[in-house]
Amino acid sequence: MQNVLIFTGIGLVALMCIAILMLAWGINTRIREITRTLAHQYNLIVKIQSVLKNKSATNAVAENAEMIYQDLLQNLIPIMAAIDVMPRTTPEHPLWRALGGIMDEYAKNPFALEKLRRCIKLDAEVARAIDNYMNRADSFLHHITTTDPDGILSSTFTDGLLGQSLTFFTQAKQLAAQTQDQG
Fold first, then answer.
1. 74, 90 in Cβ contact below 8 A?
2. Better-predicted residue by pLDDT, 61 or 122
3. Segment (H or E) for 110
4. Taking each helix axis from N to C terminus, what angle separates 2-82 and 111-122, rounded to the nearest 10 degrees?
5. How distant is the alpha carbon of residue 50 from its chain centre?
6. Residue 19: CB partners within 8 Å, gap ≥ 6?
7. What is the pTM of this model?
8. pLDDT tens, 134-146?
9. How far, CA to CA in Å, does 112 sit from each of 46, 55, 170, 180?
10. CA torsion sign, 85 to 86 to 90 to 93?
11. 52-75, pLDDT tens digit by residue?
């Protein structure tokens, strides 16, 4: 009888050990699932944080670009008035409409370069506006060139209206300087 009680006790202890092992195995499985879920959640949070940082940086760049565009545009207004050029009538940014209007006028009428040369020579305000525009546009292009790792953005600005306008204004300034030296 004592042996039966001992075997029954050992059996009960063995069953309790098996039950505890199964319970531990189930808890371990759930902990692994929770760990995977938490790791996935953490990765998602990191991605969301990265997207928000990029959006924040993009918004800051857009705000700074808008200030630069407005500054460049303010320098273009007296130049456009002096050579009697109207901006393009397109839905783009006012700076690009203004530059497009100037470059379109020059493409239609090469005499626009002569008009600008005369304005530079005769009107100090126009000369100052061109100098300011060129300095700010050059520093903007330099900044883009140094911060653009692959050069796509800087070449877009350099080859686009900004670069074309700098070439046009440089030619007009050189012609004005030559005629002052000769005159």
1. no
2. 122
3. none
4. 80
5. 15
6. none
7. 0.66
8. 999 998 888 888 8
9. 55, 42, 14, 19
10. positive
11. 776 666 666 667 778 889 999 999
